[in-house]
Amino acid sequence: RMVRTGVPCFPGRDPIRRRFEVVFEGYNPNSVSPDQLKKQLTFAQASSTDDVEANESARAIATYLQSRGYFDTRVTWTRERFNVFDRLIYRIDQGGSRAVRTVAFTGNRVLSYAELTDAIGTKPARIFKSAAVTSVMLAADKDRLVDLYRRKGYRDTRVRVNASTDPSALDSAAVSAVFLSANR
User: Fold this and answer.
1) Could you tell me if 125 and 99 are in contact, meaning their C-beta atoms sit under 8 angstroms apart?
2) What CA–CA distance (Å, rounded) separates 9 from 58?
3) What is the pTM of this model?
4) Do 158 and 120 contact (CB within 8 A), yes or no?
5) How far is the C-alpha of 171 from the C-alpha of 112, rounded, in Å?
6) What are the phi and psi torsion angles at 62 (to 5°)?
7) Sheet architecture: strand order including 85-93
8) Average pLDDT of the segment spanning 43-53
9) How far apart are CA 73 and CA 94, in angstroms?
10) Which of 16, 83, 116, 167 has the largest count of CB atoms under 10 Å?
11) Taking a C-beta distance cutoff of 8 angstroms, is the pair 69, 2 a contact?
12) Closest to 43 in 3D by CA, of 17, 81, 70, 25
């Protein structure tokens, strides 16, 4: 179901800035509200509405939705120019909600599972608590593991993070893509 909601921003009191409005399309209104999406926009903090900041806002929206369990979220945007204002249209493909089922470590021969899981932020979902993960969290987990190994004296440690909806797709971008396209 396509949802289109206009959210006016910067009502144009500043004569130097061009007026604009933001429209969100494609999101699921049962999982996120227009106000929640609007709070992710970075225009006010940056004092800019240029294309760079529109990209930053798209990234912030995607990260927010990923943190709510929509790991496959993709956000794109376009700008429509009119005589008196611009309209930024954010198209949101949330994908399905995903929770972390398991966290596994391979290749480790030195540290215990408990030491490794204590070092990372990504945790499996519990019965009453959903655990969502973002690409930013996975990158931070990677950095934490590298730091942990280096503190233990393993300076040449390399860490690679993989996430998949099916264990057979780990380490294979092609298999992961097939599962994603099949909504698995």
Assistant:
1) yes
2) 15
3) 0.62
4) no
5) 23
6) -60, -45
7) 4-9, 19-25, 85-93, 74-81
8) 87
9) 4
10) 116
11) no
12) 17
